């Protein structure tokens, strides 16, 4: 599941043309923590995913796929 969450975060970041710093700021996270989560050093939590959904409102199908609810 973790790789899928990272993919969703990065896809949304790229679609919105945001730097890693800007993306981290948008979801109320420090840039260093965001970078570590993307690299796999830390894990994204469901709270992180919730913050992403609140801010960017991605398609429901994308979220279902992300959390393995297919």
Commentary on this structure:
Helices cover 69% and strands 0% of the residues. It is mainly α. The protein has a single domain, classed as lambda repressor-like DNA-binding domains (434 Repressor (Amino-terminal Domain), Orthogonal Bundle). The relative contact order is 0.21.
Write the layout of secondary structure elements.
Layout: H1 2-15, H2 20-26, H3 31-39, H4 46-56, H5 60-66
Pfam family, one: HTH_3
GO molecular function: DNA binding
InterPro entries: Cro/C1-type_HTH (IPR001387), Lambda_DNA-bd_dom_sf (IPR010982)
Notable traits:
mainly alpha; 434 Repressor (Amino-terminal Domain); 5 helices; globular; HTH cro/C1-type domain-containing protein; Lambda_DNA-bd_dom_sf; DNA binding; Cro/C1-type_HTH
Return the domain count. 1
- DSSP strand content: under 5%
Q: Number of DSSP strands?
A: 0
Instruction: Return residue spans where pLDDT drops below 50 for at least 5 consecutive residues.
Output: none
Chain-averaged pLDDT: 87
Domain HTH cro/C1-type: 12-63
Protein name: HTH cro/C1-type domain-containing protein
InterPro entries: Cro/C1-type_HTH, Lambda_DNA-bd_dom_sf
GO molecular function: DNA binding
Quick structural summary:
The protein is an all-alpha fold and about 70 residues long.
């Amino acid at each position: 599941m973790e790789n899928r969450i990272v993919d969703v975060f990065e896809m949304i970041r790229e679609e919105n043309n945001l730097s890693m710093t800007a993306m981290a700021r948008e979801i109320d996270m420090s840039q260093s923590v965001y970078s570590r989560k993307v690299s796999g050093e830390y894990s994204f939590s469901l709270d992180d995913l919730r913050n992403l959904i609140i801010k960017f409102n991605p398609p429901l199908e994308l979220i279902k796929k992300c959390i393995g609810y297919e």
